[in-house]
Design a protein that fits this description.
Layout: H1 20-23, E1 24-25, E2 28-29, E3 34-36, H2 39-48, E4 56-58, H3 62-70, H4 74-80, E5 88-94, H5 108-119, E6 125-131, H6 133-139, H7 141-153, E7 156-159, H8 165-171, E8 174-177, H9 181-188, E9 193-195, H10 208-215, E10 217-218, H11 225-235, H12 242-248, H13 255-266, E11 303-311, E12 319-326, E13 353-363, E14 377-381, H14 386-396, E15 402-408, E16 411-415, E17 421-426, H15 440-451, E18 463-467, E19 470-479
Amino acid sequence: MGAFGAGRDDAQAPVFGLSPEWLLRDGEPVATATVLSHPEQLIRLRRACPPAARTAVLAGDPCFDRLLAALPRRDSFRRALGVSAGQRLVVVNSTWGPRSLFGDDNDVLPWLLDSLTRELPVDSYRRCAVLHPNIWHGHGPGQVRAWLRHAEHAGLTVVPPLGPWRQVLAAADAVIGDHGSVTYYAAAIGTPVLLGAFPAQDLDPASPVAELGRTARRLRPYEPLLPQLDELCAHHRPGRYDQLTALASSSPGASAALLRRAFYGLMDLPEPDLPAFLPQLPDPAYGDQSPAAPPAAPLLAPLRVQTRLRDRRPSAVPEITVIRHADGPGSAAYPTPPPDTPASASASAGHVASHSGAHTTVHEDVPDATRLPLADLVLHHCRSEPGAWAHDVMQRHRHCAMAACVTAPDTCLVRIPDGRLVTLAAAPHANGHRDLCDPAAYASALYAWYERGLPVEALLDGLVVVTGGTSHHLQVTITPPR
């Protein structure tokens, strides 16, 4: 639908997708049928290019229909994308062109990527980028990946140009975008939207996309990003974008039947007896959406970790809050977690010893190897022999206190200084789904416990790790050194 809203520099300039330059050759329509999603487009088509109006076919929007049909599977998409309970999924979206979010000459995107990296705790937020295919084809995949590499190392998932962007959109808690179709679709399905770029001068003022610019909140560049996201989500109300939803399609859910009728009519053939349908969107990790957006990749950027330990024994198992921020150029200091977080409010009455701490974790594959000597805890993921790797890494990096290897989506193995191996495994949720918190956060909780000189054996009854306000209940096992 976005093709019928942009491309207008002044009152005489052609409207992208609706002007004679796009629709006519030698004064006659190029297409036998011009498919429109809503009558408002027909009104603008009659005004912009009267000869093409006779070819108009109102047939709804199949892309929007697939999105609407997928919304009941939102939770399934979130799990497939690695979004854990209590996390927000923030999607950065850009269309193509010099005044898009990606091409904005005010350099908003570099600031935005840096803020996503530095400000948002990695266990509270998942971040995805959905870029228009023309960006990939115009600059080349290597250049695009180079621009986004630091953000990827800090946890940004970049959806490939043919990847499952619709599923990502259905799963999102907030979208930061521009005047492209994907941002419009996000608003039309009710997702909170922040506009990071919006060239109103390029748009037909009568178009639905222009209405998006009059309705959605604007990103305030160079101000702290986290409060803006909190404000966006806290003040979003259902129905804010109802007008945009109504303008997305005049026949929601019916585009398959309408399009098939039009196609068979053009061929002068009878329609099949079976109902027309659009293929449903599969979970991002499955089906024919290849290459799919992967679950959260290992965090290769160094992580600055704050912890708060609440020793609630003997009335309850210990609880450790972990907040991790990706490190990078210009990183600011972040306060330790407040003592009265919602997750810790459930502690039993009476005296509870509370201790704050901080440490640095570094993945062994960090691009800048000079960061490894700073590590208190060295990480890795899915090594074939995690115990042997942990032994070797503590020989290679004698400055570190622990080595941790993520061995499964809910489990990690940690070697502590005395040579014992500690396995930390998260219990599944009450609904049976696996806990999707990054298990490397559990290793940081163990570090906070051990750093206080507390016995690891005291955790055999269990440990609660809190990330992003969500509690993860761990089973702890200890293997003696060989």
